[in-house]
Amino acid sequence: MRMLSKRQLKELVLYSPQHIARLEKAGLFPLRVQLGPNRVGWVEEEVYDWLQKRLDCREVPNRHS
């Protein structure tokens, strides 16, 4: 299992740390794991699953426009 740091997460999902925290609190984003007193991480597979769900629900553009 691989853990993502805050920096890696921000590069992957392009959200600010504040927005990620709001999504976590609302139950709309994978929860962070407390790794130490001053270190958190996110389970890489959970974050990729979250991203895949967003990709799966994208609308297909109308090609007849």
From TrEMBL:
Lineage: Bacteria, Pseudomonadati, Pseudomonadota, Alphaproteobacteria, Rhodobacterales
Name recorded for this polypeptide: AlpA family phage regulatory protein
One of the Pfam families matching this protein, by short name: Phage_AlpA
Biological source species: Gymnodinialimonas ceratoperidinii
Highest taxon above the source species: Bacteria
Alphabetical list of InterPro entries matching this protein: AlpA
